[in-house]
Amino acid sequence: MSAIAFRSVSKTYPDGTPAVRDLDLTVTEGELLCILGPSGCGKSSTLRMLAGLEEISTGEITVDGRRVNDVPARLREMAMVFENYALYPHLDVLHNIAMPLVARHVARSEIERRVRQIADTLHITELLAQRPRTLSGGQRQRVALGRALIRRPRVFLMDEPLGHLEAYLRVELRSEIRRLHEERETTTVYITHDQQEASAISDRIAVMSGGRLQQVGTFLDLLDRPINRFVASFVGEWPINLLPADVVEDAGAPALRVGEQVLPVTTAQARRLAGYAGAGATFALGWRPEDLGIVDAVTPHGLPGRVLLVEPQGATCVVVIDTVVGRINAVVDSAGAPAAGAAIAIRPDQPRVHLFGSEGINLFADTEHADG
Amino acid sequence: MAVELSVPRHRRSALAGAAAFAVPIRYLIASAFVGFCLFPFYIVITTALKNEHDIFAWPPVWRFTPTFANFYNALFVFGGQGALTFVINSIVITAFSTILSTGLGAMAAYGLARFDFAGRKHLAFWILSTRFAPPIAFIVPMYLMVQKLGLLDTRLALVLIYTSMNLSLVIWLLRGFFTDIPIEIEEAARVDGYTRLQIFRRVALPLVLPGIVTAAILSAIFSWNEFLFATILTQTRAATLPVYLSGFSNAMGLAWGPYMAVGVIAVLPIALFTLVLQKHLVRGLTFGAVR
Asked: What is the pTM of this model?
């Protein structure tokens, strides 16, 4: 169990490509932290620097307060699981799992005992004599997990370990990884581009984009209080609706104007808007489809529109609505869904709306609970 | 959807007939070719096993009582100095140069495949360029170098020269093999606690074994058969089998029996070596190149 800290860590590849920029991130002891981001966001480079497979260009990484920049990978006491399993093709499963112990000159009988124990935990005992090429993807990843678990490493590193597996296997193995984590409480850094996986498995999630850390928090933090436009668009089961809006004065208080419609804001939000009214700045208003209500067309403070399409999804359905500011998706209970062609109005759950300024920063990031 | 093939009946039977003949004809052609290639070997082996009388009998005798006298004479008696010394020279020189070129070549190839350093590609090309000129082009400087080092007529001189000539082939062959190993496998070994040298020995080398075998066979064949340098740089003490065979007729007319016996001895070791390892050879020649 170890605490990890990245301090102003940057990675620039020899050809000049910046992969990670000025990363400050702390992983607390015993935590399972997911690094989530689209491909090319720098999450793998971050993990590889931590593993010692990639040099750190600037900044430092500490494990339990000790700087590890110059410690070679083999001495960092970390176990890693790779996306493509990276098993040793010339060794059978038993020897694959045993390799980390062989490197540490553990006694033969002890190795046998521990391999069998791990194989038992992962249900791969009957595969011990087989070579990796005869195994299925799921079995291979179990063996790779076994090779990592056989040690008592300070840190587990997982680089999209379920990326190549079929959907049902992903769900099965991720719950197994979570179970093993709860058993051992070893600090774990887990890379994924799949937000459901991140949400299911992690204590906290760090979202990266373009080599920069965007936000760290629980899945709900990211969903309800996205710090900027990227996090708001990237996290969430359905893509967030972004509408052009500006700030106006309405009955002495600041309010938002979308198209011709003036929408009220909460008092906490109003405080953030002080000074913007009439200043001419435009914003992007962020509405999550699941935070929208569909009401009668004549309801005051609703954004009018016409239903284009209703996509049933079981208990809920996605309603595509045409408005003066573009198409908006709403997710509502199938029971109360409007019919296609109906004239309706949209009213958001006001405390849960987001407002992104010109820099993409969310002005309403932490106003949700301020109203009480 | 019963669409009949519009082939007339007699034509169809003709096609079927052709198909029935195709396989035997193929085998016939193949046998003729193999027979043509192997016939000299047949003559060499049978002549080596015949006595003087049978060798010159006309018409040739197909059935005879084999004798090993030719082998005995060739190895131990013939001309006061039998072939045994040269057999041993050939074996020693081939073994050492093969081990050296494969061993050093594997390490160099791994370095070129896995370590990023300035001028890596130039270095690789430069290594290959050592084979651009025909060997005879540098026989004179080579002779002078060997002479100045006092290595004329020594096995060491040939071991060194064959090793250097085989190295470029081994390096280029194995570099492809090493590059083909997924880098994650070696990274996994690094995280698992292995040093670079341990990874080379325990992970990389076993994975390129077919390549190693191929490189070793090709090196051994080259060293075993090399004639030009051997004949210029050696006199008697370090001469190899090809040198001995070339001088055979001059010495005492041509004694066909012992001559053919030495020929058999010259073919045998490489033939056996290749037979034992050929399973890897075929895989090795195709494996590294295909990506």
From this structure: 0.81
